[in-house]
Amino acid sequence: MNRATLAITTLALIAALAGGLALAADKPPAPNKIEDSRTLRSAVRFAMTYTNALQAGKGSQAVAEGWDFDSILADVFGKALKKHSAAEVTEIKRRLHALIAHALDNKDLSAALSVGQFADYAAKGDDDGHAVVTFQFALGETKVPNKLVLAPRGDSWRVVDTDVNGTSLVHDLRAGYVKVAEAFTPLQFARLATAELEKQQQHQQKQPDRKDRR
C-alpha cells in the first residue's frame, strides 16, 4: 500500500470513527429501569388517586393536573412539532386536553365510572424508565383491562400514555397523524380533531338557559 492510499484509508477510518462517535453522543443514555418496590408502590398510589378522581366526575381536572402533555405531544408528533412556535404548541396542548376531557366527562361514561370499581392494581418498570400500572375496571361481570404509563416527575408522577382494553392513546394519535402528516401540520391536525367538539360547544353556548325561556 503506497503512502497516498494509506493516507486516504486513514482519513476514511477517522471520518467513520468520528461519525460513529457523533451518533453515539446524539443518542440519549437508556434510562434506569424502575425496580424499587417502594417507588412502584408510589406509582400505584398515584394511579389510585387518578382513578378516584375519574369516579368523582373530575376527569378534566385529573387530566390537567396529572398528564405530561409535553411528553405526549413529542411521542405523537416527533420532529414535526418543532415546526411550531411555543404559542402554537400551547394551542395543541389545549385542544388535546379539551378532547380528552370531553371524552372523560361524557355522561354515560361518568355514570358507569360512578357505579363500577377499579381494582387489581399492579406496577412494574419498563425499559424506558416508566412505571406501568395495570388495573381492572369492573362493571357487573364485565372487566376492562387498563394501563397507565407513568413518568417520574420530581416526587410525583405524570401520565405519558393510557391504554384501555389494549388500545393505547399515544399509539392511536400517532397512527392517525402519520396518515395525514404530508398534508397537515400537528396544529392543523389538532384543529381538525377538535372541530366537531368546538361546534358542539358553540351550539350549547347559543342555547338559551331553560330559566330564560320561562
Would you mind describing this structure in some detail?
With 214 residues, this protein is an alpha+beta fold. The chain has one domain: Tgt2/MlaC (Nuclear Transport Factor 2, Chain: A, Roll), CATH 3.10.450. 58% of the residues lie in helices and 19% in strands. The protein has 9 helices and 5 strands. A 5-stranded antiparallel sheet has the order 1-2-3-4-5. A hairpin with a 2-residue loop joins strand 3 and strand 4.
DSSP strand count: 5
Question: In DSSP terms, counting alpha (H) and pi (I) runs of 4 or more, how many helices?
Answer: 9
Helix content: 55-70%
Q: Kindly, what is the distance between the CA atoms of the first and last residues, rounded to a whole number of angstroms?
A: 100 Å
CATH-assigned fold name: Nuclear Transport Factor 2, Chain: A
Question: Overall mean pLDDT score?
Answer: 83
- Contiguous uncertain segments of 5+ residues: 2-27
CATH class: Alpha Beta
Order of helices and strands: HHHHHHEEEEEHHH
The CATH architecture term is Roll
CATH H level: which superfamily? Tgt2/MlaC
Structural class per helix/strand content?
A: alpha+beta
The percent range for strand residues is 15-25%
Strand order of the largest sheet: 1-2-3-4-5
The backbone outline, from C-alpha atoms, is globular
Specify Rg, calculated over alpha carbons: 23 Å
Report the major sheet. 5 strands, antiparallel
Number of structural domains: 1
